Automatic annotation (TrEMBL):
Organism from which the protein derives: Natronorubrum bangense JCM 10635
PANTHER family: ABC TRANSPORTER ATP-BINDING PROTEIN, ABC TRANSPORTER ATP-BINDING PROTEIN NATA
Keyword Glycoprotein: no
SMART domains given in the database record: AAA
PROSITE patterns: ABC_TRANSPORTER_1, ABC_TRANSPORTER_2
The protein, known as: ABC transporter-related protein
Amino acid sequence: MEAVVEATDVRKTYGETVALSGASLSVEGGEVFALIGPNGAGKTTLVRALTGTTEPDSGRARIMGDSPMAVDRSRLGVLPQNFSPPDRLSAHELIAYYAGLYDNARDPDDVLADVGLADTGETWYEDLSGGQQRRVCVGATLVNDPDVLFLDEPTTGIDPAGRRTVWRLIEELAASGTTVLLTTHDMAEAERLADRVGLLADGSVIARGTPTELVREHGGSSRLTIETAAGPDAFADLEYPVDRPERGRGQTPDSVVVVRDIDPVAIATVVDYLERHDLEYTGLTWSEPNLEDVYLALADGTELERTDRADETDDGADLQQTGETA
């Protein structure tokens, strides 16, 4: 199937900052493609390059076979990450305003109902909650019934119930044939919505595939996390591999150990081992790998490298400042 949205070796720099270093992706018709990655990885810049609001230094961006600058804008819906419409208009007035930009726009009341705001149409935008404001912004991108929809962090600040409303709406749009490219930091959102996921790090897409494919390839094994002061050496006779958790698991390294490659039916074996060896523990948690594990495995190293580089720069600046002061 021919790609509806396509980026090929897109590069973009801002001064000395490299935002994109050769990013490539393709999105097929009716597909939901989720772009994930650390802050500063280049997700928003790539969306801007694809929608024609930023011109790449090199590489190629295409929408429905055309340059983003040449494509019929009435066929696109674009929700920027930062979108601030006028405060002193009601939700209905805002949707009606954007509907007035198109010849065959949808009814504003229908759009408000789609985003779960049918009862707040007369409320001024500034009086809506942050999550309601974001849903109005989502609605503004749908008034022209777009063929291709770009959503940059669409559910940021939306409460869980509102988030699920937006999720169902995106699923319905994709089912009706709309092509969707969204960026998100919510791995549950990407896992639920996306047919395929691309992980952007340091300006390039370093992995892509269905959530299942990515988890299978990069997510690691099932694991049993044990809250205990005992170290991995205390489990030397256990038939499963045991080690400390990876960085970012939410526990301090000395408070837990992780038993890997274990099925839930074998948890009793571990409990028996703990009791036979008089190893105290306060909790057990079994889990399968998911998209968050993929993110941590592939993006965490990049984030650490960036932090280390920033720390080195700061240290150098501090040393230089100290020398000048002295």
